[in-house]
Amino acid sequence: MPDVRQSGAMGEAFVMDGGGIERLAAHLLAEGRSVVAPVARDGAVVYDAIEDPAEIARGVRIDSRPGHYRMERDGTAWFDHVIGPTPWKRFLHPPRETLYSMTRSDDGIEVEATPLPQASFAFLGVRPCDLAAIGVLDRVMTGGAHPDPRYAARRNGTLIIAVNCRVSAETCFCASMGSGPRADAGYDLALSELGTGAQTRFLIEVGSAAGSALLEALDVAPATEADLAEARWNAAAAADAQTRAIETEGLARDIRAAAEHPHWDEVATRCLNCTNCTMVCPTCFCSTTVEVSDLTGAHAERQQRWDSCFNVGFSHLHGGAVRQSGRARYRQWLTHKLSTWEDQFGELGCTGCGRCIAWCPVGIDITEEAASLRRTEP
Amino acid sequence: MLPGVGRVLSCRTEAPDVVTHRIAWDGWEGCAPGQFNMLGLPGLGEVPISVSGGTRTPGEVLHTIRAVGPVSRGLAALKPGAALTMRGPYGRGWPVEAADGAQVTIVAGGLGLAPLRPVIRHFAETARARRVRLVIGARSPADLGFLQDYDDWRGAGIDLALTVDHAPPGWPGRVGVVTDLISAGPGRTVAYVCGPEIMMRVSAMRLQALGVDAGDIFLSLERNMKCGAGLCGHCQLGPVLLCRDGPVLDWARARPLMMVEDL
Amino acid sequence: MMIRDLGEVIGQHRLFAGLDPAFLDLVAGCSANRVFRPGTVLAREGASFDHLYLLRAGHVGLDVVAPGRGRLRIQTVGPDDVLGLSWLVPPYVWRYDATALEEVRAVEIDATCLRAKCEADPAVGYAVLKRFMQPIVERLQGTRLQLLDVYGTPR
User: Fold this and answer.
1) Which residue does chain A place closest to C155, by CA atoms?
2) Are A30 and A120 in contact (CB under 8 A)?
3) Closest residue of chain C to A320, computed from CA coordinates
4) Using a CB-CB distance cutoff of 8 angstroms, which residues of chain B are in contact with residue C61?
5) What domain range is B235 assigned to?
6) Residue A115 and residue B41: Cα distance in Å, rounded?
7) What is the mean pLDDT of chain C?
8) Is residue B167 in some structural domain?
9) Distances (CA, A) of B249 to A297, B219, B220, B221, B243
10) Which of residues 13-52 of B touch C (CB under 8 A)?
11) Same domain, yes or no, for B114 and B241?
């Protein structure tokens, strides 16, 4: 147990009252940051930039099942809504952005760089699965020989206020993936909601110097042993409530060995190749480049846009696509998440958020498909 | 990943749809044989094109382009003086040092000769040229590129053999598939193979049947590439990101991946 | 040339490499060592299949003549190749023209003689057939590759 001091060193824990969330958001807004927080909108919990702390979703719960997502008004808790459809990658690795522009003239081509984003995000309410996913994205986008400068610029300016989960949705399986329901690193501050109604408090754990500096603006007291115990108990209860799981021991090896498993044909009969799972997945990073030019052709922009391995054109090679069948495309997606990601980046590409299960229009469940693929046929 | 601007200095037609551009580009510092650059045109897009010459000449690079898609058609049609966007080099090329102390067999099918040209030049300039057998296959005599290089390569001592799949009347050379010309040994042989994927598979199996170790057979693979830098996910071949881990892989690694349909 | 020497020559060809001397002598009993000048026609399409050749040096062009398209070269064969793979298949007729492109040195095997020895001793026949399967399958695979037109631009 860390020695609790008012100084707010890393690893130390504090508590604030329920209204502290709005004070925190107000402070971040006052600092000039773009504060992205859960907002109840369009029947879902959506992460979006807020202008007023009152916009933060409160008193909502979600019912998330295969092919099903409903938001319901219930109680006054701040963060019992688990996750929404929007992955945080939307802000760090946006769906479309202009890389640079080009102007043709008689003298040739002039390339003009799009200025690097001057982002100063504060992500308020990042769940442990999503926090892990941001870490996975960091290693993909900035861990190699050619880091993406735009991603790096946004990421470096981003403050992360994580929120540990005390409720699990039916689609959650973070506990089996080792990414939740409690975050242990990668945040500036990690909050755990304690109590309900008038007794609502937040346990605050400090993960960085920037996080520690925020404490000044909040009215915090040292956490008690009881606060810490309640937070631990809540997280354990959320983990226990999870009904879905993927056994990660030997997972990459088993999926690699299943390349010709007949089950791929069975999934292919259900999968619509709609790309939903890749859009809502917090780690799916694939992109394509698109040329956007004016009518004269003298001016063109090279834009980067999200792409999906479920698009036939994704694997286009002069002549045609390599992955012609839905079977091959679903195999590519699942195998990448649960096996080849490890070969490519040293870890699995799934953090157990369960979005792909909820937002699949036909309710395909990655945990069930993985289990089926590990079963040898009779 | 901001591209620079290159300018075409000269063009040479290699075959009906194939042209080699000599390109001046300030940003070019040379590369390893087998690496590639991303070449682009505003409004059309970018494509990965292997370096067919100029691996050691800063400021000047050769690219051989086959007009097959909208971008490559635009690039192939460029005339001297025309500008294009350039960035690179990317990927891992041919491991020429693997051939130290060994016989060398180079197998080129069609335009596969382009990325192999820097390797051939490398061996032609070393005392090892006499231990190199180069076999070139093409669809027809008109599709044989880089004709002006053949005399230089032979002059350096390289054993060069050519064959075409289809010959018009009067063709004095060999007719048949390139795999028929493949030989290996005596002793350890290291092979560099480039061409259409089917031809590479058959060649690699032939080399293996001749006793060449799978780890000594190198192939250059091709998949859709958008970024060239390991960030866009398009060029995945199972566990491999070809732009980052390839395009050159050895047969021991490539074989299990090439044998899975639609991977 | 002595028969025994011819057996050794035959044993040096890829087709029969490694087979025992008794077998090689048997084949040598049907064989002759030949040298053909450039331009020599070794076979004509439609002609009776009297001999097959184990090529030792020089190349041979295999042509089919198509009215209006001229003389089409379908393949060239050279050292360590076999000219005449269908010697065991009735009606024992050549399906292409074969012309020496250079000075060609070859072991010429009397097809009727070899067929008779294979008929007389099935063990010999099976040994011969097994060895011929290798070039037959290689040529089939090569022909497939040519058919696939792998260098062509996909449309």
Assistant:
1) A319
2) no
3) C154
4) 175
5) 96-258
6) 21
7) 91
8) yes
9) 39, 6, 6, 7, 11
10) 17
11) yes
Euclidean distance between CA atoms B187 and B101, whole angstroms: 10
User: Do B68 and B129 have their domain in common?
Assistant: no
Contact B45 A289 (CB under 8 A): yes
User: Residues C58-66: what's their mean pLDDT?
Assistant: 93
Chain C contact for B209, CB < 8 A?
no
Bridge partners (DSSP) of residue B83 are B7
Whether residue B174 and residue C76 make contact (CB cut-off 8 A), yes or no, is: yes
Nearest-CA residue of chain A relative to C153?
Answer: A319
Tokens 């056994």: give the residue.
A247
Question: C3-148: what fold?
Answer: Jelly Rolls (2.60.120)
Q: How many CB pairs under 8 A join B and C?
A: 65
At residue B263, the pLDDT reads 86
B263 falls within a domain: no
Same domain, B45 and B130: no
Q: Are residues B40 and B169 in the same domain?
A: no
**Domain closes at, from B89, B106, B131:** B89
Domains of chain B: total? 2
pLDDT for C67 equals 87
A231 band by pLDDT with thresholds 50, 70 and 90 = very high
Report pTM: 0.90
DSSP one-letter string for C76-129 = EE-TT-EE-TTTTSTT-B-SSEEEESS-EEEEEEEHHHHHHHHHH-HHHHHHHH
pLDDT at site B162: 95
**Residues of chain A positioned with their CB less than 8 A from the CB of B2:** 99-100, 111, 113
- Do B76 and B181 fall within a single domain? no
The residues spanned by each domain of chain C are 3-148
CATH of residue B15's domain is 2.40.30.10
Question: Does the beta carbon of C91 lie under 8 angstroms from any beta carbon of chain B?
Answer: no
Per the listing, tokens 């350039």 go with B86
Residue B1 with chain A: CB contacts under 8 Å: 99, 146, 148-149
Query: What is the ipTM score, two decimals?
Result: 0.90
Q: Do B105 and B71 share a domain, yes or no?
A: no
Residue C154: list chain A partners with CB under 8 A.
318-320
| The predicted structure's pLDDT at residue A148 | 96
Residues on chain C touching A319 (C-beta within 8 angstroms): 154-155
Do B241 and B122 lie in one domain? The reply is yes
Domain for residue B158, yes or no? yes
Report d(CA B55, CA B28) in Å as an integer.
Answer: 9
Whole-number percent of chain B with pLDDT over 70: 100
pLDDT tens column, B106-121: 999 999 999 999 999 9
The string of pLDDT tens digits covering residues B184-234 is: 888 999 999 999 999 999 999 999 999 999 999 999 998 888 899 999 999
Q: Which residue has the higher pLDDT, A230 or B128?
A: A230
